[in-house]
Amino acid sequence: MSFLLLRSIAAMSHPLFFSFLFIFLSPLNIPHTFAANSISMNHPLSGNQTIISQGGNFVLGFFQPGNKSAHNYYIGIWFNKVSQLTPVWVANRETPISDPTSSELRISDDGNLVLLNQFKMQVWSTNLASIASNSATAVILDSGNLVLRDDSDPSKVLWRSFDHPTDTLLPGCKLGMNKVTGERQHLSSWKNSDDPAPGIFSFGIDPHGSSQYFIVWNGVRQYWSSGYWNGHLFTAVPQMKSKDIYNFEYVSDATENYFTYSPIDDKMISRFVMGTLGQVKQLTWLEENQQWMLFWSQPERQCDVYALCGPFGSCNEKSLPFCSCLKGFSEASPSNWDLGDQSQGCVRNTPLQCSTKSSGHGDKDEFFMMPGMRLPINNHSVAVASSEDCELACLKNCSCTAYAYSRGCTVWYGDLLNLQQLSDGSIGETLYLRLAASKLPNKKSSKELLIGAVVGAVVSILALSAIASFMLISGYRQRRMIGIAKAMENNLVLFKYGDLQRITKNFTEKLGGGGFGSIYKGLLPDSTVVAVKKLEGLHQREKEFRTEVRTIGQIQHVNLVRLRGFCSEGTKRLLVYDYMPNSSLDTMLFQSNSTILEWKTRYQIALGAARGLAYLHEKCRDCIIHCDIKPENIFLDASFVPKLAGFGLAKLVGRDCSRVLTTMRGTIGYLAPEWIFGVPITSKVDVYSYGMMLLEIISGRRNAEQSEEGKNAFFPALAVHKVTEEDVLSLLDLKLNGDADLEELDRACKVACWCIQDNEFHRPSMGQVVQILEGVVDVNMPPVPRSLHLLAENLRE
């Protein structure tokens, strides 16, 4: 039986299949519509009524954004032919109403289009000079433009929503400046995913009259420019050269300067958005995948957005979410962080002592070393001769929050903005962050320092006492750690942070790491070798963390790294695993000096990893979604048997593996489209990541890499086309010199391409993947995912 037939039968027999399909294809929170496409004096709009454009492209009505604003309603325009509720314009974005049933959008006595709340108070208006009300009508056009016009002369447009855009620019809409009146149109981001009020990021034309467009933070700080228009494109946006998808136009004449665009295919649905995370984005709707595809975004790197993570927040391109708080700090507004708004940044957990001497209540402030950082802005230079003097200069000023010493002393006062943790620790600068001494490990109390200074006549007695104490403590620790080692044979152990510091020699022997933590080698007193992972960048409550860890600790499978124990002390979260002598799969695949994995070994690694995932998804009491499948989380034992690790991100869901809405997790390059678009996920996100990893196992190359010419290349886009052309041998790692079982290679390439389909319903389950790799089930030729097809076309240009 073919895989496609099995997939169809399984999908249709699943009791939740049609529910999932209905939810996926149906708009969320979209009211009912009636036939009219206009609002007149005698036909106001209220409740769940909407008006729809004549060609059926756009809808105007009351709507609720997001999932948490149950009592906030807005008048807006959204796409009618897009299954996801996607507002493109909002009237009362700063003044929501709570009862749409008794509120009205109507033509007022003076001819303006106005919104009245349940108390009949005006909360929004077109604010025009008085006109004859009996001749004014508001009409929604197929372009998405809401116009107020004079019925006695339909060509006379009194007001247009296109002249007052919110966060979205639709095809045909102008974004520019009227040279006569000085009026400018600009886009402003939503505050967060639940609140359409103007956020801190805006996009608009240079007010001084040049052809440049700027993204501005908080109305005062420009952090990106489009470059000048050269007659074909803006010089800082090379993606605009793709003329087979969009027509881009910039016009400058005696009365106005403006930018506009239109798709080549007039049936294409697209939008240009100023996003809540400070990037402008061009998006296209893919009907067959029911998803928005990103065409381009600027600035290209998320961490180049100014003050994205707010005060004392750090950005990391390799982790999701991108922002995390510095050591000793917590989110200023956790609820806003959950909605994607980190602009308020982080607040200090413990106040500074603000003294160079010990206070009566604790030690003086100290500094936490942060290597590999892009330093914050607004620095000040201090003329000192050494790093020690630089530290002292910072301590002497109560407003000084950090310093760096590299070819001179640099200090920062007040909030730290624009910090970035660079992916390669060998680059960047070292920042010393000022913290209360109690927030740093291994601090010495003032009493200890005093005792250390007063030696003299009693030195021998103190020495003998210290030796005796050390022997007693060491004996206790030795016995306790041996007891822990024995307990680990059958039980999940709760470690103390200090114990893990000791067995890892203060985390000195690093084995590897990823976007959410580093892994260190540890040695228990009975000579048992373990791997200790320090989790970083996760925002999880203590109870939730312990519940998930205990559940994961109970699972055992030959293809899962066994979790031996964990530590959870405040913000310190660590996991203790069995040690794998052959390190992680990425080391074997991508390091030039590593052992070359022959095809037979690679195939068994791919099959073993699939079996481990299938067990998590289908055989555990609770379905476990791993959420971060990648070569760095596949470890190899002495016999190269693969073991899945990296469960620090795992998400538990119901036994039926139904959908769960959670914050974005995982690693860029392996993320399924569901993560990016913020919809509830299923175990199919792991299937997508597995498919991406399988292509890396086959090819021995990263999915995203740079060619020798310095151009970006996305290997999956090439791989899918080679598979459909039945040229799978060209995808095999060159180090193998063509030595592979062609039937296995063909099977692996095809199943990888099925796994990375845009639509999750088209992807197989991991159980089906195992059957295909075992040769029990045949696999048909996969289609080319629409997103990869468009990406391949762009890369060829």
UniProtKB/TrEMBL annotation:
Q: Record's InterPro entries? A: Bulb-type_lectin_dom (IPR001480), Bulb-type_lectin_dom_sf (IPR036426), Kinase-like_dom_sf (IPR011009), Pan_app (IPR003609), Prot_kinase_dom (IPR000719), Protein_kinase_ATP_BS (IPR017441), S_locus_glycoprot_dom (IPR000858), Ser/Thr_kinase_AS (IPR008271)
Q: Does the keyword Signal apply?
A: yes
Query: What keyword terms does UniProt attach to this protein?
Result: ATP-binding, Cell membrane, Disulfide bond, EGF-like domain, Glycoprotein, Kinase, Lectin, Membrane, Nucleotide-binding, Phosphoprotein, Receptor, Serine/threonine-protein kinase, Signal, Transferase, Transmembrane, Transmembrane helix
Show where the Bulb-type lectin domain sits: 36-161
Write down the Gene3D superfamilies for this protein, in alphabetical order. Bulb-type lectin domain, Phosphorylase Kinase, domain 1, Transferase(Phosphotransferase) domain 1
Which organism is this entry from? Answer: Elaeis guineensis var. tenera (Oil palm)
Q: Which residues form a coiled coil?
A: none
Q: Offer one example of a GO biological process linked to this entry.
A: recognition of pollen
Q: How does it sit in the membrane?
A: Single-pass type I membrane protein
Main subcellular localisation? membrane
Look up the EC number in the record and give it.
2.7.11.1
| SMART domains reported for this sequence | B_lectin, PAN_AP, S_TKc
Q: Supply the name of the protein.
A: Receptor-like serine/threonine-protein kinase
Per UniProt, ATP binds at 534
Spell out the subcellular localization from the entry.
Cell membrane
Membrane-spanning segments: 449-473
* Highest rank taxon of the organism: Eukaryota
Protein kinase domain spans which residues?
A: 505-777
Q: Quote the SUPFAM superfamilies the UniProt record gives.
A: alpha-D-mannose-specific plant lectins (SSF51110), Protein kinase-like (PK-like) (SSF56112)
